[in-house]
Amino acid sequence: MKLFQRIFLIFCLVILCTMMVASFVFAMVRDNFNRKYSEQQRAIETSLLTNAQIVFQTQGEEATEAYFKRLRSNPIANNIVLIEIEEDGEYEDILDRNVSEAEIRYAYNYALTHNDSSRTLLYTDPFKKEYLFFVRHFDQERALTFQTGLIIPGLPIAPVWHEFIVLGTVLIVGLLLAYLIAANIAHPIKILENGMNRLAKGDLDARVSQQLSERKDELAVLGGQFDKMAAQLQKLMARERHLLHHVSHEMRSPLARIQAILGLLQARPDKQAEYLSRLESEVNRMDNLVGELLTLSRLETSNAPLNKEPLTIVSLLAQLVDECQEIAQQNQQTLNLTIQGMNDNNRFDGNESYLYRAFDNVIRNAMKYSPSGSTIDVKMYEDRKNLRIDVTDNGPGIKEEQLAHIFTAFYRADSSGNSSGTGLGLAITKYIIEQHQGKIIAENVQPNGLKMSFVLPKTYIKKSA
Ligand code: ADP
Q1: CB within 6 Å of ligand 1 — which residues?
Q2: Residue 465: its pLDDT value, please?
Q3: For 36, what's the count of Cα atoms within 13 Å in the CB-facing half-sphere?
Q4: DSSP run (H or E) holding 449
Q5: CA torsion angle 222 242 354 378 (round to 10)
Q6: Which of 82, 96, 181, 238 is the most buried (most CB within 10 A)?
Q7: In what order do the strands lie in the sheet containing 347-350?
Q8: Which residues lie closer than 8 Å to 350 by C-beta, 6 or more apart?
Q9: Least confident interval from 298-307, 352-361, 397-406
């Protein structure tokens, strides 16, 4: 059974049950009310009848007529009948109630046989004249004049039809509401289902929140989440495609060069040594590229966090800078390390080899992209919350509009010029730092140069005893 049908059916059942219970309770209350009302009416009738007799006995016929005239507006009083029984057996209806003779006779006989009846009374005056007092329809459960609810004013049909019309209208309106509510819930779910089907078939452009834009409920939120998920998937897929495109492109160039070198090697065996060394450097470049790709893919796809252990971050950076000094000297550059206000024994929870690689990428880039004679400053310090490492060079820097892209795999800014490289180093660095809950920020410095800042949360630092 479809969701819409199920919701609709449930609402119908709820409405029907509610109507049944409500009708039952309503009928009970009404019966109870009517019974009490009827009892009350009877009590009033009895007391009016007694009053009539007393007035008649004490003040006479005219006073009784005047008494009932005064009560004319009271419908109960109008049910009281006063009959004078003539000697010849004729009846005179003193209050002009228009009562049939059969009814009078019936009441008279009833009064004769039921002395104790409070609703029929026989009175004989001192002149032996007989009078009959009675309440009309005294021995019948009178049709209730009181009706509670479910009556449509001004509709001239039997009360039972009024009830049918009212209940029928409630039922139809209820079913209509049930239909609207069921449709209101099922419709957005159908939209979401369609979106998911499109996505499952590979249509990554599938979006649903526009169709749910008029809603402000949880289903609209779900639609928004669906769109976010689809957009994320689309981004990931685009990145995968981009990566694949770059990988194949990056692989093809060295392979083509290797092929060319092999051709040359066959043609000029006398230059074997030179060609073999070029071959070796091409193979090394490919090895480097494949190695970086593997690292990136491992970092990107692994769900498990990196293995971390307490490491002395100060000595790690000092050792790295030390190892880079040789290249700096070759490039005729100055590489400075400043450690500010930090204890040499500070231990930082991190993955030593990956962190080493991250810092190494950035320091080597600073040396690679700065001209000879420039200075590279590596500074490590703590602020209130973070451990910070700034690597600042006075090279060409990076065009502002390119800054945001340098952490994307295979992206090489204009600053790279003709230098060799894969464009993967900073992407790897960014992943490593994110795995340590930190961030890396690149900004140009004045008058020229680039500053790369590592920001690592200080909670990772444990002071050694
Ligand atoms: P690669 O160095 O292999 O090209 P990276 O991911 O390490 O790849 O760097 C991406 C790009 O960022 C480089 O191609 C270069 O254009 C730019 N870059 C990185 N560091 C610097 C720097 N210190 N000065 C100027 N440009 C830089």
Answers
A1: 361, 365-366, 369, 393, 395-398, 406, 412-413, 415-416, 421-427, 450
A2: 41
A3: 6
A4: none
A5: -100
A6: 82
A7: 309-312, 347-350, 461-462
A8: 308, 309, 311, 313, 436, 456, 460
A9: 298-307
Measured from the Cβ of residue 422, the count of other Cβ atoms closer than 10 Å reads 20
Distance between Cα 361 and ligand 1 center (Å): 9
Same domain? For 23 and 115 the reply is: yes
Contacts of 303 (CB under 8 A, 6+ apart): none
| Residue 179 structure tokens | 């239909």
Q: Could you tell me the sign of the dihedral formed by the alpha carbons of 388, 391, 397, 401, in that order? A: negative
Q: Count Cβ atoms within 10 A of the Cβ of residue 377 and give its class: 0-12 exposed, 13-18 middle, 19 or more buried.
A: middle
Give the span between the Cα atoms of 227 and 244, in whole angstroms.
25
pLDDT above 50 for 180: yes
Residues 315, 442, single domain; the answer is: yes
> What backbone torsions phi and psi does residue 56 show, to the nearest 5 degrees?
-60, -45
Shared-domain flag, residues 256 and 125: no
Total domains in the chain come to 3
- Ligand 1 centre to CA of 239 (Å) is 20
Where do we find the tokens 């009814």?
103
Q: Which amino acid is at 258?
A: I
CATH number for the domain including 446? 3.30.565.10
In which domain, by residue range, is 404 found?
309-457
Assigned token pair, 77: 């009083």
pTM of the model: 0.58
Q: Token match 């810092």: residue?
A: 359
